[in-house]
Amino acid sequence: MGKYIVAVDVGTGSARAGVFDRQGVLLGRSSFPISMKTAGGGLAEHNSEDIWSAVCRAVKGARDEAGVAPADIAAIGFDATCSLVVRNAEGRPLSVAQGGENGWDTIAWLDHRAIAEAEELSRLGGEAVRHSGGTISPEMQLPKLMWLKRHMPDVWNSAGMIFDLADFLTWRASGSLTRSICTLTAKWNYLSHTEEGWNAAELARAGLDDLGARAGIDALPAPIGVSLGPLTAAAAQQLGLTVSTIVTPGMVDAYAGQLALLGANPEEQAQAGLIGGTSSALMRFTAEPMHLKSFWGPYRDVVLPGWWVIEGGQSATGALLDHIVRTHGNGLEPTPGTHALVLDRIEQLIAEHGNGFGALIQVLPDFHGNRAPLADARATGTIHGLTLDGTFDGMCAIYYRAMVSLALGIRQILDLMEFDRPIATLNLGGGHARNGLLARLYADATRRQVAISAGEEAMLLGTAMAAATAAGLHGSLQEACRAMSRPATLIQPDEIRAEALDRDYRIFLRMQAHRRELDGLA
């Protein structure tokens, strides 16, 4: 048995892989882009073969950088966005593109084609809806499955395997159709705390009584940190590993990140975890189920056995900053280099103008709907205070104030999550953790200390923890979390900046109220 593990994290735009040792030290890392096709009407699709190819290249690149032999890799784990992969009974791709283009067999997580189906499910009610905060999101899988059955009946009738993306990756790796308790519970409205999982009557009301047959689900989901079996010979060759490597059940990316941030000490209840990337997910572990309107969950065993998770989120965060660059940047593209240039200039402008920089600009960040606390997929964004300023500095002001609005939204969600006790610490992971200005805004706007430990590698580390457990490198998943977690750097809120952001927060809440009023008039 090898002594290293590989973790794979598939986001919206890339597949990343890392090689870790049993202490959680990252030895090698590699990343490759993945394609996404977008169209009007909220449509977005991936090609799962393109994703698998990027995964294989990333794994090989990470292992080469680490200088670790294939035979030394004990286990591999995967996390991914909650995108929906559709295959026939033989495992061949089925196109979900409205134009029928071949290869586009995956509905991206951010695709909102199923808003009407999500609203219908919400009206139907039931226990699954109650465990989704009273509202089903179009980013969940059941609405997308309903849409597929209604609008692409030929595809539905040909389907024999439908996967959450992380489950697709474990199937490609191991040949196992066993799904993860994380993906099914968090994204397929599977009630992991019940004996039956799905309520048959509720599925029938949604027209999904044939879900099991079409998706190829005929067994209980597997908990996090167990083994699904070894790599197949084909997968081992494609990944540059061996058939001795164990495959562990996958996770939704944000949940893998929460495992890295909170898994070592879930009983510490005065903390929450924020994974910020293209979108953002804010979560708490609780010992008992806690229901909160518009918050997803509570979900039991979704990451750690015996623990419940409740989640509030923002649908477009990094995506909003990308959008600001595209629409106000005079031809700039939102590359990492562009974002770094913008952030550097914002720091200079704040130094010149003080904390009031851009203060006349106010933003509601709901450019792709609002997950929490409004649970309104049709909500729209607002930028108030624009002028004819088309300069780079003018764009920087809008960008900065968009970041302020994201931090204010997190404050609103966090305040509501204090349903039983105060939350003193916000653990930050994902891409937002490398944005020092945004991290400070989170601390100042929420008046809570921000802890950064795993940082942008949180998803990879959480997945590595699960793989290390499956390989037997640690006795339990929580032991792996404790052994592999990292010390945190703390950012304390600044009182002067926090007072200025209190004013912005009052405006933020008034703008939400005004939007409701204007929507009513429209």
What does this structure look like?
It is a single chain. With 522 residues, this protein is an alpha+beta fold. Helix content is 40%, strand content 19%. The chain contains 18 helices and 21 strands. Strands 1, 2, 3, 6, 10, 11 and 12 form a 7-stranded mixed beta sheet that branches. Strands 15-16-14-13-19-20-21 form a 7-stranded mixed beta sheet, with helices on both faces. A 5-stranded antiparallel beta sheet has the order 4-5-8-7-9. Helix 12 (318-328) runs antiparallel to helix 14 (392-417) and helix 13 (336-353) crosses helix 14 (392-417). The longest helix has 27 residues, at 495-521. It is globular and about 60 Å long. 53% of the residues are buried. The mean pLDDT is 97.
Shape: globular
Mean pLDDT, nearest integer?
Answer: 97
Cα separation of the termini: 65 Å
Percent in helix: 40-55%
Number of strands: 21
Radius of gyration: 22 Å
The number of helices is 18
**Overall SS class:** alpha+beta
Name the beta content range. Answer: 15-25%
The biggest sheet amounts to:
7 strands, mixed
Stretches with pLDDT under 50, minimum 5 residues: none
